[in-house]
Amino acid sequence: MTKLFKFIAIAEGISYLVLFFNMLVIKPNHMELYKTLLFPIGMAHGLLFIGYVLMAIMIKNEQQWNFKEFVMVQLASLLPFATFYVEKKYVRNA
Predict the structure, then answer these.
(1) Helix axes 2-21, 31-59, angle to 10 degrees
(2) Higher pLDDT, 13 or 92
(3) What mean pLDDT comes out for the span 79-88?
(4) 27-49 pLDDT tens trace
């Protein structure tokens, strides 16, 4: 279960960055490409976000997170690069 959470945390962080790249770099220069990529990137990120949140809830007891750590793990899903930090700091070795 922990290995899957680590994978989802990294994939969610990457999808977040790809979504930002699509908005900030591609949109101003190539509107058609932006519109084409928006749905698949957004859908992938949305599914990974939901997976991250649900997996964090499922492994909370396994990882022995206290309330503060659990809240930090959940808030990390909202910030760019934060899921990479969580994967290193809060998830004990699988």
Answers:
(1) 160
(2) 13
(3) 88
(4) 888 999 989 999 999 999 999 99
| C-alpha–C-alpha distance, residues 26 and 30, integer Å | 6
Q: Rounded to an integer, what is the distance from CA 20 to the centroid of its chain?
A: 13
What's the rounded mean pLDDT across residues 66-79? 92
CA 4 to chain centre: 13
CA distance to 66, 70, 87, per residue, from 11 (Å): 25, 19, 11
CA angle (80, 19, 31) in 5-degree steps:
145
Q: How far apart are CA 93 and CA 23, in angstroms?
A: 35
